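@channel sequence for tomorrow's demo:
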Amino acid sequence: MPKKTPYLKSADPDFDPNEILECFDASDKGAGAVEDTEDSTAVFEHGQWWITCPSGAQFSVVDATGQGTVGGFDFEQVSEGGDR
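structure tokens (generated this afternoon):
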């Protein structure tokens, strides 16, 4: 019998982007690493969710558990952005 693939919120295009943004804002990476996350956007692209901050900083959204995660997510910064 084949193994069942676990459900990944970060790979679900129908997951609520507002919930992802709320988790990001509550995370150390969202609140601590980047200024002005209030106008950040969450977009589903290339099979996963991405967050872009007003500064241009981008974060990959991944499913995770444990210390430093919020709502079952962790956020990996993939670009620092710059002044816009």
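heads up for whoever presents: Strands lie at 41-45, 48-52, 58-63, 73-79.
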